[in-house]
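Structure ticket #2291
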Amino acid sequence: MSRPDRFAERGLEPSAWEAGPGAVFPVHRHPRAKLLVCRSGSIRFTLQPSGEARDLGPGDWLELPAGQDHSALAGPAGVRCEEAFHGGQGGG
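Resolution: structure written out below.
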């Protein structure tokens, strides 16, 4: 059985990106909500101000609300993700 495609369910077209081992993404935020899936490798997102860490590996999804401060650190083998932004706090 295949996993649901959350992008397709919301009518979103994802874009792909990748980062090398240990790549650092300093604390930032986005004006729109972001839906992200890890396709290979791993990445750790740290949410602010709580400091909560979310580790993603292949097939794991993360939804960040609009305005959520976060940083990220690519894993030791790097990471390849797909993501799509959508309006506001809720759905597409």
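Closing remark: The longest strand covers residues 70-86.
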